[in-house]
Design brief:
The chain contains 5 helices and 4 strands. It is an alpha/beta fold. The structure holds 4-nitrophenyl phosphate.
């Protein structure tokens, strides 16, 4: 099984949405028996919480089921996951800190964005609804490319 972990700060806005979009695409492509995903936050702010209401709303607007409870990234995740995709530079740096190591499958989510390669996924928490739609669009196209990368790399 190829295991993918999406990481943001709170694990209630960006990364659970990324996980939901990824799972939907993986299912559509018939890859659910070879690829799985999870999400986590670098902070302990929202452990055990449902995704932010605005992430739930934008996800449902696109008919993407979202189902996750907040959890904090732990050192062992470095051994469990094949790929770890950090939403922004700060999460990327804190992931290396938590894992206490580099990880050969660690990337920025937008390393796979064909439009603005290597940029940060903006933190939508303190903004309005528009920010969540923008995050959705970024994730949708970046994840599509990431899955293409997985298919080529692992001959799926
Ligand atoms: P996320 O957004 O990292 O995409 O889940 C945030 C959620 C909560 C906070 C910051 C960002 N917070 O400061 O509580």
């Amino acid at each position: 099984m190829i295991k993918v972990l999406f990481v943001c700060l709170g694990n209630i806005c960006r990364s659970p949405l990324a996980e939901a979009i990824f799972n939907q695409k993986i299912k559509e492509k018939g890859l659910e028996n070879v690829v799985s995903s999870d999400s986590a936050g670098t902070s302990n702010y929202h452990i055990g919480e449902q995704p932010d209401e605005r992430s739930i709303q934008v996800s449902l607007n696109h008919n993407v089921p979202i189902n996750h409870l907040g959890r904090q990234l732990v050192r062992k995740d470095g051994e469990t996951f094949t790929y770890i995709l950090a939403m922004d530079r700060s999460n990327h740096r804190n992931t290396i800190h938590t894992l206490n190591n580099t990880h050969e499958g660690l990337f920025l989510m937008r390393d796979f964005d064909p439009d603005e390669t290597g940029a940060d996924v903006p933190d939508p928490y303190y903004g309005g609804k528009d920010g969540f739609q923008e995050v959705y669009d970024i994730l949708d196209r970046s994840i599509e490319k990431f899955i293409q990368f997985l298919k080529e790399k692992h001959d799926l």
